[in-house]
Amino acid sequence: MATGRTPRVLTVGAGAAPLVGSLIRTGHRVIAVDIAQAAIDALLGALDESTASLVGEHLTTIAADVRTLRIDEPVDVWHDRAVFHFLVEPADQLAYAAAAARAVTPGGHLVISTFAPDGPTSCSGLPVTRYDAGSLGEVFAPAFFLVDSFEADHHTPWGTTQRFTHAVLRRA
Fold it and tell me: What distance in Å separates the CA atoms of residue 38 and residue 43, rounded to the nearest whole number?
């Protein structure tokens, strides 16, 4: 990340999660991407008043398919909490990896969470692909290389447990 520049974070599948507001309040410029405009609208509606006043200056929202995403300026971090595993076709996975490689500045990071090998085989009625750290590294190579990873259980609001793989990859 260049010195003196506000860190830029792109988060895919942004929805109304509190992450975007937290990043803005800590001084990051955020690009929130979701395929559904309704999710973007929910995100904007969930921002508190002080954070909402920073929209435009510190927040850009994009309703788009991440597989074909192109942005004007590179980002320091690409964040994905549970979008990538919905891409079950190899061509879609490669298109996503190419979009991330185009967007992340050299030396920047891809932070990604997917279902682990022993995680669910479907979510919200849709099939998913499950990954360990090695298989994630393979999908994103050679543009990215694996820096760190761990697996953890996610406890859902409806009382089930889902195993996730979390990985940090660095842009070559």
Answer: 9
Residue 58 · residue 24 · CB < 8 Å: yes
> What's the pTM value of the predicted model, to 2 decimals?
0.92
Q: How far apart are CA 30 and CA 28, in angstroms?
A: 6
Tokens of 108: 């920047």
Residue 131's nearest CA partner among 69, 98, 86 is 86
**pLDDT tens digits for the chain (172 residues)?**
445 678 999 999 988 888 999 999 888 999 999 999 999 999 998 888 878 777 778 999 999 999 999 999 999 999 999 899 999 999 999 999 999 999 999 999 999 999 999 999 999 999 999 999 999 999 999 999 999 999 999 998 889 999 999 999 999 9
